[in-house]
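pasting for ref. prot 1 ->
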Amino acid sequence: MSKLKELTIPGARPLPVIVLADVSGSMNTDGKIQSLNQAMKEMLESFKSEDDLRAEIQVAVLTFGGGTVRRHVPLTSAASAGWTDHPAAGGTPMGAAFQTAKDLLEDRSAIPGRAYRPTLVLLSDGQPTDEWKGPLKVLLDSERGGKAFRMALGIGADADMEVLSAFLNDPEARVFKADEARQIREFFRLVTMSVTSRSRSANPNVAPQVNAAEEWDL
């Protein structure tokens, strides 16, 4: 007599969120790095309260500054993700961050084939100090990088809006602008709303509506 196969119920599908955060030396001014650290704590805490059988929010934070890229928060379930305050120092190796993001997206052991479309978030207050056009093209041409929902924030007057627009790669998409440090936190409230609305929707692969509240001034 053949044995009945064990019935298994599939768990929630991963919904990856990858943040590329500029932590170069210029982020030390005007309270920007402090606001970024607080914003990341608040976003992760908000994600912890999301409990859906359809989608499991997973978060990775890639920081770039000081000539290197760090996986400050390795890709993990938002329910268990934590944040340690990050210092700001050095240059802006954004090209290396694009390459690291592409490598993570294409790593099937980290992000399985059943995962929902990822969200990529980029924020920077300056210009890349390494070659970025080639790595960005590789990211956008990759299967998952090209399909990802992308959001971008330019911080202060020196942010390279051309690079941020190229990252979005969509003439109708908007680069958000933070003229004051407090607006970094407002931007991440918007990111949080975008991701959580996807996790709760009937089809988390559908593009979310991203609209900043008027009082947020982004």
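and prot 2 ->
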Amino acid sequence: MTAADALDWDYTRLASTYDLRADYHAGLVEQTLQRLGLPPGAWALEVGAGTGKLTGLLCGHGLQVLASEPNTSMRTVALAKPALRRAQWLACRGEALPLAAGAVRLVAYGSSFNVLPAQQALDECARVLAPGGYWLALWNHRDLDDPLQREVEALIRHHLPGYDYGQRRVSPQDSVMGHGAFSHIDAAEQRFVVEVDADDWMMAWKSHATLQRQAGTRLPYILQDIRSLVATSSALRIPYFTRLWTAQRKPL
């Protein structure tokens, strides 16, 4: 992916429904921050902070958070939440960070590393991380072994036989370890179940950028068919995995 391609991930129209997506597993994130030995008050940068789903967890740990989000609509949603105003919000992209070298102990990507050109993003991450600091990336993945999710997948692929989740369901290990500036990559995951209103669940699908990009004009028909799967349900139990990777910045 080139820098120009990365601009195609425009979340302006998705911002209003993005918060209806499942939150990350808070316990897994907190356990990870404790394992990394990041003390309260340490500086952390979140790249692609969106509406603040990860930002709030980083702030809750007591970190000093710089939240980078280039999309105005996403930042507006985030800044409407008083708890997220503890972070300092920056309008910048992950390939061009306005930070000094070695400025932070953690660079985190919540569902954003996959929309960046990996080499450029890792170059900037390595530059702004203090030696011994940490890169962290995580995503929520629907449990595709769940019966409802199997039906959803079948519907999507009926409309889009070549549907591809892209990098968001691919381990970033090869990119990170191949870069050369990082070591000791670790992976962790936690399955959890979200109880959600069926209408809210359908609204959350409207923020699914990967599906929107590939569906084009077929998106309304896909969403209509997904809605038919839950037409008689008012509440749903949706299983997810939060999957998380960390790597340490090598000494200079």
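The mean pLDDT is 93.
The longest helix spans residues 147-159.
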